[in-house]
Write a structure and sequence with these properties.
- This protein has 2 domains: about 140 residues, Rossmann fold (3-Layer(aba) Sandwich); about 55 residues, 2-Layer Sandwich (Ybab, Chain: A), CATH 3.30.1310.
- The protein contains 7 helices and 8 strands, in the order H-E-H-E-E-E-E-H-H-E-H-E-H-E-H.
- The strands form 2 sheets. It has a 5-stranded parallel beta sheet, sandwiched between helices. Strands 3-4-5 form a 3-stranded antiparallel beta sheet.
- Helix 5 links the parallel strand 6 and strand 7.
- Helix 1 packs across helix 2, helix 2 runs parallel beside helix 7 and helix 4 packs across helix 7.
- It starts with 7 loop residues before the first helix and ends with a helix.
- The model has no long low-confidence stretch (mean pLDDT about 90).
Length: about 210
């Protein structure tokens, strides 16, 4: 039987139960990866009594197959590439430079929409909980974790509802702790484990960050 979450809010509530040891602790910050990860993160932050913010990382898609991640770029400029996949597909450097720049532009746009004039949160010395609605290849999450580590948090925790075992193991090398509720051996897409996986809008992300959703 395939385990399914009703929707991202349900997944966030279940994740919050697994993170209950952080409830009402000082210096805990919950970061959601937009867009869908912010819906999950909002439930976690609400249950833990912790502030909510965003951390943006974007996938660098393969030529002709944008859903296949050959790497990712984070909002601080951190770029992570799957060198083996890049070599295997024969992806030229100019394509990677072009796609990286394009994703950095989209990151800048989203930062302006989501944060406006608010400064980014202080991460040093905090327990940072990075949340997404699931991971597949883990490329974007890997870029985000490495970028966050450079900000010197006291503890870096990754919390996701679902992901393949090999990806979770890989990400566990970057985070101090990984909470993943479901690691199916047969994994095809994050959305397959949700009954409702509708696209999240920028407007919904803003409302969640403002506490009005």
């Amino acid at each position: 039987m395939v385990m399914q979450f009703q929707d991202r809010r349900d997944a966030g509530q279940q994740l919050a139960e697994a993170l209950a040891f952080l409830k009402d602790q000082k210096d805990v910050l919950v970061l959601g990866i937009p867009r869908g990860g912010v819906v999950v993160a909002a439930e976690v932050a609400r249950a833990l009594g912790a502030p909510l913010d965003v951390f943006i990382a974007r996938k660098i898609g393969a030529p002709g197959n944008p859903e296949l991640a050959i790497g990712a770029v984070a909002s601080c400029g951190e770029v992570v590439l799957d060198e083996e996949l890049v070599a295997g597909l024969g992806v030229p450097p100019y394509y990677i430079e072009k796609e990286t720049a394009r994703q950095q532009q989209e990151i800048s746009r989203r930062m302006a929409v989501y944060r406006g004039n608010r400064p980014p949160p202080e991460l040093a010395g905090k327990t940072v909980v990075l949340v997404d609605d699931g991971v597949a290849t883990g490329a974007t999450t890997l870029a985000a974790l490495r970028a966050l580590r450079a900000s010197d948090p006291a503890e870096l925790i990754l919390a996701v509802p679902v992901g393949p075992p090999e990806t979770i193991t890989l990400l566990g090398e970057e985070a101090d702790l990984v909470i993943c509720l479901y690691t199916p051996q047969w994994f095809w897409a994050v959305g397959a484990f949700y009954e409702n996986f509708d696209q999240t809008t920028d407007e919904e992300v803003v409302r969640l960050l403002e506490g009005t959703a």
